[in-house]
Design goal:
The protein is an alpha/beta fold. It has helices at residues 57-60, 94-100, 131-139; strands spanning 75-79, 91-92, 109-113, 123-126, 128-129, 143-146. The strands form 2 sheets. It has a 3-stranded parallel beta sheet. Strands 2-4-6 form a 3-stranded parallel beta sheet. It holds the Pfam family Ribosomal_L27A.
Length: 148
């Protein structure tokens, strides 16, 4: 039998440490939290990642390249080719597209993409246009209005 082979009896349980129950108990007075300071106070202390007021790492890092946006803008996208079914000189908004059944869900403000061709003159009101979409709408005799 060696010291490193000794183990407690199967089924036995070690008694939990009761801190703050007097100096004779071994963890009295400050209860293992030391004297004064933020970490000795009751409660949880600081949240994970807190660096004493310094800009924490999880907020410093995304300023570098190749990190995804924290709050990316969400757009409901539609291609120029899908606008061909609408009547000429009509006004195109997100609400009108939903009522016509061209767009099925509102995922954010409307963004018009430039895939396909447009043969109808339309007044398109959207939050954003790609350069090719704007060019195709104006070439068809329509106009683009940016709304917030």
């Amino acid at each position: 039998m060696k010291l490193n082979e000794l183990t407690p009896k199967p089924g036995s349980k070690k008694r939990r440490r009761r801190i703050g129950r007097g100096i004779s108990a071994g963890q009295g007075a400050s209860g293992g939290f030391g004297m004064r300071g933020q970490k000795s106070r009751s409660g949880t202390g600081t949240k994970p990642g807190f660096e004493g007021g310094q800009m924490p790492l999880y907020r410093r890092i995304p300023k570098l390249k190749h990190f995804p946006l924290v709050n990316p803008k969400q757009y409901t996208t539609i291609n120029v080719s899908q606008l061909n079914t609408l009547p000429a000189n009509g006004e195109v908004t997100l609400e009108s597209l939903i009522t016509n059944g061209i767009v099925t869900s509102n995922d954010g403000s409307l963004k018009v993409l430039g895939n396909g061709e447009l043969n109808v003159a339309l007044v398109v009101k959207a939050a954003a246009f790609t350069a090719s979409a704007k060019q195709k709408i104006e070439a068809a005799g329509g106009s683009c209005e940016i709304i917030e």
